[in-house]
């Protein structure tokens, strides 16, 4: 090998090491912020195993039990809605720190509550935390992440949500013999404290800093998270794309309306295609599908949680490689087919053993479909599609719509089962999924490999909704 070739080789290796070091730091940031996802999954999942014990201890009526379950999505809806302007004023990092404190106080309240009222109030606080962090964590990560890894890094948050759900199932399952529901809630302390401490050490989003006119601070942050040659260029791109006018009326202007349409529709479609009928009511569904013993229904539920985690892990690298649209289309197609089959199985009067297993296979396929599509990608696109000056506000509105639809599906599912039967209910979700597929095919853009600033430029240029993610 010539001396020159050796030098070039060494130089390339050094550059690779620098790029890897910076990417490593981005991954650390993503993982810490994604602790918010663990809290989201854990605190929404843990209640199912706790209900029985709390009902017994406090002698809860059906109404107060409903209230206890419903306060979290209600709190989340309110938390998401009221925090949009705060995240644009206070900053992403500071709001995440405040949210960690809300989680800590709420969890403390849950473990100590001596009356049902205090328990409901504490769960409401936890709900507020979930509502705020369900979009501020992905938002923060999306503004830190390098363009080509944005999908994967932001989706660490969804992976954390799925892990939080399994954690909740396992905690409920293992502590059930002790009947210690306070200890079940208490596990939520660990990610809350870790989030609080971790966020104290992380930098603020450079995009938010530029937006607030703190260009020098943004430069410092960018120097930590990007290799040196990229820093100036990226800073300049952010500055060029940013106007300093934060005004909620911008959300309804002609050029920003496509972003609102994309974010709100993905937020709603994520819920009305029925994911939480499975996540929240899995034991009931398995029971209907012929898994008679409580033990087997519970085991199948934990299995579903694990499939959710594994499929999300598989999806993460594909989001930036294949892109958002192919995964959405593939995943929702799978969801639609599984729902249609499930409906058909429930249509048969008496479910045979064989059909029970086909039903299980349908539910697994449905979860895989969700985990590679609407699960991670709805949250990702909600935070990447808005222009900087209304990114917080816009994502907060879309997130509130997500929690609103979550509540509606959760509240109506059992009634739908009674009215339409299981076959009719799953057929309804299958039809909604087909509608979602058509809508996404014609309206939702591809945002892979496109910088947040380019998306903003496309919006300003008035490109059709479907091409807002275009890179040229
Ligand atoms: C949804 C939740 C759902 C979870 C399941 C999240 O993306 O927002 O409603 O329970 O995924 O993995």
Defining key terms:
globular; binds beta-D-glucopyranose; 20 helices; 472 residues; mainly alpha
Protein described:
By secondary structure, the protein is mainly alpha-helical. The protein has helices at 3-33, 35-45, 47-58, 62-90, 92-112, 116-144, 150-175, 181-186, 189-201, 206-211, 215-225, 228-241, 257-272, 275-288, 294-321, 324-347, 353-371, 374-384, 391-443, 452-460. Helix 5 runs antiparallel to helix 6. The longest helix has 53 residues, at 391-443. The chain starts with a helix and ends in a 12-residue tail after the last helix. The model has no long low-confidence stretch (mean pLDDT 92). Bound molecules: beta-D-glucopyranose. Beta-D-glucopyranose (BGC) binds next to helix 7, helix 14 and helix 18. Beta-D-glucopyranose binds at residues 158, 161-162, 165, 270, 275-276, 279, 308, 375, 379, 406.
Quick overview:
With 472 residues, the protein is mostly helical. It has 20 helices and no strands.
Average pLDDT works out at 92
Rg result: 23 Å
Count of beta strands: 0
Ligand roster: beta-D-glucopyranose
Query: Structural class of the secondary elements?
Result: mainly alpha
Distance between the termini: 41 Å
Q: Give the overall form.
A: globular
Strand content: under 5%
- What about the largest sheet? none
Number of helices: 20
- Which runs of at least 5 residues are low in confidence (pLDDT < 50)? none
Helix content: over 70%
Q: Topology as H/E string?
A: HHHHHHHHHHHHHHHHHHHH
């Amino acid at each position: 090998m010539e001396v020159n070739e050796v030098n070039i080789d060494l130089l390339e290796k050094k550059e690779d090491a620098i790029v890897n070091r910076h990417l490593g730091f981005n991954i650390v940031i993503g993982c810490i912020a994604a602790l918010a996802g663990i809290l989201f999954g854990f605190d929404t999942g843990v209640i199912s195993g706790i209900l029985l014990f709390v009902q017994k201890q406090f002698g809860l009526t059906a109404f107060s039990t409903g209230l206890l379950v419903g306060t979290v999505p209600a709190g989340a809806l309110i938390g998401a809605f009221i925090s949009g302007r705060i995240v644009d004023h206070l900053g992403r990092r500071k709001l995440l720190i405040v949210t960690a404190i809300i989680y800590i106080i709420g969890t403390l309240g849950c473990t100590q509550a001596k009356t049902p009222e205090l328990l409901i109030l504490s769960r409401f606080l936890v709900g507020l935390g979930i509502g705020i962090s369900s979009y501020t964590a992905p938002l923060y990560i999306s503004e830190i992440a390098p363009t080509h890894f944005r999908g994967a890094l932001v989706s660490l948050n969804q992976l954390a949500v799925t892990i939080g759900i399994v954690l909740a199932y396992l905690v409920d399952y293992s502590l059930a013999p002790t009947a210690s529901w306070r200890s079940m809630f208490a596990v939520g302390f660990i990610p809350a404290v870790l989030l609080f401490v971790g966020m104290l050490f992380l930098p603020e989003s450079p995009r938010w800093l530029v937006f607030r006119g703190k260009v020098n601070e943004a430069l410092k942050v960018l120097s930590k998270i990007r290799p040196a040659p990229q820093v100036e260029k990226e800073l300049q791109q952010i500055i060029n794309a940013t106007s300093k006018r934060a005004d909620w009326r911008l959300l309804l202007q002609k050029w920003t309306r496509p972003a609102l349409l994309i974010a709100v529709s993905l937020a709603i479609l994520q819920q009305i295609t029925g994911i939480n009928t499975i996540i929240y009511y899995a034991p009931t569904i398995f029971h209907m599908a012929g898994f008679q013993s409580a033990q087997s229904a519970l085991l199948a539920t934990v299995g579903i949680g694990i499939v959710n985690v594994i499929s999300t892990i598989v999806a993460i690298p594909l989001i930036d490689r294949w892109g958002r649209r192919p995964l959405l289309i593939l995943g929702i197609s799978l969801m639609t087919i599984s729902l249609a089959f499930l409906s058909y199985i429930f249509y048969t009067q008496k479910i045979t053993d064989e059909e029970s297993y086909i039903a299980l296979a349908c539910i697994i396929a449905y979860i895989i479909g969700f985990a590679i599509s609407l699960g991670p990608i709805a949250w990702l696109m909600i935070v990447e599609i808005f222009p900087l000056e209304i990114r917080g506000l816009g994502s907060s509105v879309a997130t509130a719509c997500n929690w609103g639809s979550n509540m509606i599906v959760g509240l109506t599912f059992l009634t739908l089962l009674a009215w339409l039967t299981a076959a009719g209910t799953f057929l309804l979700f299958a039809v909604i999924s087909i509608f979602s597929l058509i809508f996404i095919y014609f309206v939702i853009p591809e945002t892979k490999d496109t910088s947040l600033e380019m998306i903003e430029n496309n919006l300003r240029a008035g490109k059709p909704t479907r091409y807002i993610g275009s890179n040229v």
